[in-house]
């Protein structure tokens, strides 16, 4: 989740001072949590939070004191954040791993039924589904890829 492209490209381009990794599974895994915090780019704090805690913090005025990049592990977590009241207009999908239950949609994005349901919900709620590995890549619309593959 927090790798070279996020640490060196997205964090710099978005001018954030904090990266919030929002995932129930990562928040419960001490090893993954520690590795993510250690992977922080210089000058940027990393926090790992469960989805419900992020929703709670979003409504706390203190969150306005920093500029954060939210990273989620899957589209369902993005859906849960928005359903919880967090205002997100665009989600960037960099990569999603393939397994036998998923269909390749692009060269780096594989989706399963849960992913499709979440993306459909996000799209229906006006969220732009952007596909880019790094900020300099041309923006591509994930919804168009899903329609072209006749998945939605």
From TrEMBL:
Alphabetical list of InterPro entries matching this protein: PTS_IIB_sorbose-sp, PTS_IIB_sorbose-sp_sf
Record GO terms (molecular function): kinase activity; protein-N(PI)-phosphohistidine-sugar phosphotransferase activity
Superkingdom, taxonomy of origin: Bacteria
Major localization class: cytoplasm
GO cellular component: cytoplasm
Domain PTS EIIB type-4 per the UniProt entry, residue ranges: 1-152
Keyword list, A-Z: Cytoplasm, Kinase, Phosphotransferase system, Sugar transport, Transferase, Transport
Keyword Aminoacyl-tRNA synthetase: no
Gene Ontology annotations of biological process type: phosphoenolpyruvate-dependent sugar phosphotransferase system
Places the protein is found: Cytoplasm
Protein name: PTS system, IIB component
Species of origin: Liquorilactobacillus satsumensis DSM 16230 = JCM 12392
